[in-house]
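To whoever is covering the structure queue this week,

Two jobs came back overnight. Logging them here so there's a record in the thread.

Job A:
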Amino acid sequence: MKKFAHSENRWGVKHSLREHLTRVADLAEEYLLNGTSPPEGRLAGLLHDLGKYGNLFQRRLEGKESGLDHWTVGAWMAMAQYKSLAAAFTIYGHHVGLPSFQELKRISKLAEFEKNHPYGLRLSDSDCERLMARFTEDGLSVDKPAKPIFTSNTLSLGDMLDQRRIFSALTDADFIDTEAHFNGDENGKVYRESGPTLQAEKALEILQVELDCLSANSDPGNAITRVRKTLLNNCLDAASNSTGLFTLTAPTGSGKTLAMLVFALQHAVKHKLRRVVMVIPYLTITEQTAKIYRDLFEAHFGPHYVLEHHSLAGMGKEDSKADAEQEQERQRRLLSENWDAPIVITTSVQMLESLFSNRPSSCRKLHRLAESVILFDEVQTLPLHLSVPTLAALSHLAHQWRSSVVFSTATQPAFQHLQSQVIPLVETGWQPHEIVSQPQQMADQLRRVTYHWPEPNQQTDWPELAQNIEQQAQALCIVNLKKHAKALWETLVEEAEDEESVLHLSTNLCAAHRQQVLEEVRQKLDDKRPITLVATQCVEAGVDIDFPAVWRSIAPLDAIIQAAGRCNREGKLEKGELTVFIPEDTPYPPMAGYLQATKITEHLLRTVGTTNFDPHQSELIQRYYRELYDLGRPSERAKELLNAIKNVDFPEVAQQYRLIKQDSINIIVPYTERSSLYKELLTEASEQGLSQKWIRKARPLTVSLYRPKAEEPIWGALQPVNYLRTPENKMTDWFVYLRKEDYHPNLGLVPPKQLHLWMA
């Protein structure tokens, strides 16, 4: 009797199990095909749904059973009969996530395992011989790997990454084939269109034309023009080096965004690499960079050449341990991104947490990092407490996956100071090649700013600060917290002759609103009209604006230097003015290490003295980072994470490696200027539910917030966006904000303190 993998699609066709296993094995093998590929992807693909040959599972597809585990028997076969630990981990985890080694060991005794199943499920069939007989009767066979990737039960950090790569290939293949079945028509399965290829040579030609145009419109005698030309030449020269680790140290405003892309494309041409991944810490820079790259390439390669992928909050918290055939679970996984695009622009949270994740949707894309150029912009924002395992993971990726990793910043952290802590995790350590031949000379050429430092304990309140800022016709003030930005904006507006000259920018504004504010700022700066912008740190790294005067609340030294990059950026003045102040109200952002790094900046100010404190000097920057690492003791702070790696505990590693500890939610806001889009999204959410198309369409109106507590009144204004075909289940990460009056034209989303809560 024919066995099936999935229930009927809209054409009433069930998914053949034999066809599914064969296709998933083919795809997984294809995804891992290159010079560094692990050999066990095909084995995992053929055995991943072995338990679906069980009678109970076939009854499950008819709605007559539930609560079944169809994956463990395949994992048992891979480990016991085919001696493949990698395939066993992969198969066991492809629905419930990669387990700890201790949990995986329990399946060696299937009967005992089923009696004490960790998720309270039943095996679809515990008779492995019967299942393999049906597998063989279906015309399938599987070979034992000649050389398993793991020959020991003790896995290193690098081994665990290689395991995630196989896991990624299987889950992506599984999701792709499952999606093709449910999207099928009368002619059979309908696969999504594969992403375009990089075509690095043609892309480089297009980029070169753009750079030639920019050069033709620049003053050849200007220091910034000379520095940008030098940086481009350095990038082209370095691109001929072998794949590996690189740093790019260049001052703000030197054109790193395009220079990095020049390196990446030339490097891809040289080494036949397949993908460029740009990793950026802040949404504002992500949006800006995506626009630059789309404007360059979309007309030539089409709309799918550049993929913009934001935060991990998008598909819901992936912690389901229930029957994997539930419709909601399937829909959520099929909506996850797999980075099938030649240029991917993503966030640090998305990239790095995925490298340490154990969940199928988060890991799905990882196999596409092989044979890629991975560019980390503003790398000084990497969290201190995770620096050692992060460096180790990226070193392994560069040396073992035939990829290159580039760390770019104006304030290159002294990561070489951590070499002795990285070496025990990966033998390749952290020894990058610097792309820029003379970084200090380049920094000296771009001394465009005079710094003004506060004396110790010299605090400034908002009215005094506002009075100082008002002396300048064009000024930017960057503060550490959204509540500070709101308080200062309100103070400035009260005193302003022209309220429209005072603008606000924070992530309480949706992407479309932020873009509109930045366009207005740039226009007023160009027209030499009065403009004061109050912003959070979302504006300070990489955002292309140029003010003659900037104020910055006391912060980590690297953040202050980044703020200086928004001052006299184009070198039109002899010197811009950057004033650092200490606010009376001094709480700090919850980001790990922010307060500690700020205190080290204050300590260095006292030690060196405000007169001699020169952020242009690389020696000062290196001293700052050395003190930060010595005081921060990154390996000690990552002790629980390192223990989890030692114990090969994938779930605990994922739990411990979190750039942002708090979960977040995505809210579609009623931004007046895009009211028609808001109405469309609200209607489509109600009628059609959540889809990948809806998510991408919604991004311009999205605001991300830390998940509110259950008792907070904001829930009264949020309408959950449900999954397609699962109206009875509420999506937990996507919401539409219903109270239009709470979206302020300047401050963005400002929920009132009291709302009527919905009653369930």
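Job B:
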Amino acid sequence: MDHGEILLYLLLDLVIVIAAARSFGWAARRVGQPAVVGEIMAGIILGPTILGRIDADLPGEIFPAEVPLRQIADLGLVFFMFLVGLELDTKMVRAQGRRALQISLSGIVLPLIGGIALGYFLVDVNLGGEFLEGTDFPPDDFSFALFLGAAMCITAFPVLARILVETGLYKTPVGAATLCAAAVDDVCAWILLAAVVGLVQTGSVAEAGEVFALTFVFIVFMVTVGRWLLSRLAARYDATGHLTIDMVAAVIGGVLLAALATEEIGIHSIFGAFIFGAIMPSRAGMTRELTDKIEDFTVIVLLPVFFLVAGLRTNLFTLDSPSLIAYLLLIIAVAIVGKFAGCGLAARLTGASWRDSVIIGSLMNTRGLTELVILSIGLSLGVLSDRLFAMMVIMALVTTLIAAPIVNRMMPRERLLREIAEAEGEPQVPVASRILVALGNPANAGYLVDAAIRMMGSRRPAELLLVRLIPTPRAPEFRTGLLDEESQVDAAVESMRHFVEHAEAAGVKARPLSFLSPDVGRDLARVAGEQSCDAMLLGWHRASLEQGVVTALVHRAFRLAPCDVAVFVDRVGMGVQHVEGRAVLTVLSGGKHDGAAALIGTHIASSLSTSMRLAGYVSAADEVRGDGDSEKLALQADSLRSLSGVWVVPEVLSTDGDAIAAAVVGSTEASVAVVGVGDEWSTDAAFGQPASRLSEELSCPVLVVRAAGEIPPETGNLLSKLGLGSGSKVASA
């Protein structure tokens, strides 16, 4: 095969591999699994397991041996391990201290012992398979058993952290403990594996001693001189404010040199790349920007080639007898039990509940791509035969597949949100009023917080729950994304500090809360329920979102929230202000949400030290409803006045003509208007009529209210007699 043919095959193979990896990765995410599971499966399908069953020569014809796919795969591993090293956070490890160390060490020792014992038991099974050409085989029993023990110790830190980030568990105590334990586990396991590789490559403990000594010198050099050079590079980045081509070239060159050094030492190139990533300034802007540049090419091109190479070496049909299937089940059992017993029991002994211990044990069982890296090393060194390699690949897939379902079962979303809220601030205490404020648009956040304070009226003690949910971004797939998400959440919480101080100055306690959310509307409703909120307040105008997206969010909150939901429509950006001579205007439409609107109106009026104008019923057809409305309206106003202590003035908008137009004219003398949603809001582009038209045409800010319909019997009976609809939870205070 000449150079031109090799190039043509390479280009074709890359297209096939990339398409297969993206398709199967997408499918895995659709069923709630990490993308890596799908991409590993794509590699297996393109190999002898599936494609080879159609025609035994087909994989070799599509992916000829002359095409340098293996070299590209090795390069992909180098940059993957660099990305893994980048996310090693030693500060996080120190924060958890002894507990993380106990969990991680127990999660290494037990799997190591179990793996070594299993290795001696499976020596003949391993020798019964085929080894790669060009390797020194068969391996000695001790090397094989030690390698199998090291492979059992591995936890896929990127996959584990990604599960924690996407679920939000990383913000809970159990999540933090698991992350730290996994980080320690990762470091210890890589050190152990480096020692095993050095021992296997040299063939004796005496010769391995020289390899270990050189490795120690290399690590010391990287931690001192290497870290100093990278800090100088980060300082230069800070001075220029952007990443230059020369900076990128310097870092990539450093990664390759570090990989070259450890390959020459005899412990494999991936260890040098991992160490280089670990010494990078983790919180520097340079590191984040550099990661974005390297990650996409690595994930889209290089790693799928690695999955293909691994898949070409995997033939699941070599497990063609009941005894081999039994050995496979034994391997899976030892792997699962070793981590569950090691990490789960250690967590239990350090004070975790049984539920948290099971979560920790299942998460530490994830092996994913990291395990595949280790197995590929074992295969290339001649330690593993194709038979054991296939068994261990299945074990890696099974242990990764079970993690997310167990975590979701043990930690339902409602309980998780409660633990996140408790972890973020002081414990929840009884208050007279608690309102959740969903903050999104920085331009109107201050007005939204002010409106929430006004909605509380004079009720004290009171609390605002300031919530900023961040839609779950595109997952980084093969790294954790933890630093990215933490920076977003930290920035969101920090942006709310000013509003916390503002609320406390008004005598209202405030708690900021932010986390990633795959479904913002549902999670807002869950937080409101778990935190026993009286009401939820959302803004209608968000510069960063299309109005259709905002409408969908509001309607989802209307459907799911267990409390009253108010939407603040402030088209001119004036907020709810106290203006002498201006009252609160509450417009009644005759619907079931009028009671909530009227009572919220009285609270706002009380807060503004003003009166409330109770405007007579307006139907969806813009007509006043029947004779005697003036007399009925006066009775309602008197009752609301006695209920709230606020001066309520009845006001018939119109006896003929357009009543909404009359309300618009009347709104010029109002500080804020309050109106209940129309009964047909679910089929309307906004709030149902007349609320939609009022929110568009009134000249003052408008609060549109959807009532929860859950109030004390005495209040509900009173409002029912008054013809004011169902009432609200806000009324209960």
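Note for Job B: Confidence is low (pLDDT under 50) at residues 618-628, 710-718, 726-733.

Please reply-all if you pick these up so we don't duplicate work.
Q.
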